Amino acid sequence: MTHRSTDRSTSRASGALVAVLAFVGIVVAVMRTLPVPVIKDLPQLAAPWFQDELPVP
Fold first, then answer.
1. DSSP state of 45
2. How far is CA 42 from CA 2, 11, 35, 51, 54, in A?
3. Helical H runs in the chain?
4. Mean pLDDT, 10 residues at a time, over the chain (57 residues)?
5. Are 45 and 38 in contact (CB under 8 A)?
6. What is the torsional sign of CA 30, 34, 35, 40?
7. Whole-model pTM above 0.90?
8. In the prediction, which pLDDT does 1 show?
9. Contacts with 47 (C-beta within 8 Å, 6 or more apart), sequence order
């Protein structure tokens, strides 16, 4: 006797898990690559917060 209903629910749950993990992986990869183009501009972007700590020329 086979339990087809549990096999279908298990395969459906594992398929949903794979889809969620794939989506999360893509989101994390994109979030890690977003700051790369901004790195060269970080001193100018951060300057307003650190004006009091920068030496006066």
1. H
2. 61, 47, 10, 14, 15
3. 4-33, 42-46
4. 61 90 94 81 77 59
5. yes
6. positive
7. no
8. 47
9. 54
For residues 41 and 57, what is the distance between their CA atoms, to the nearest angstrom? 21
Rounding to the nearest 10 degrees, give the CA dihedral for residues 11, 15, 20, 25: 120
Residues in the chain: 57
pLDDT reported for residue 2: 54
- Cα Dmax for the chain: 85
What is the rounded distance in angstroms from the CA atom of residue 8 to the CA atom of residue 14?
A: 10
Residue with tokens 């395969």: 11
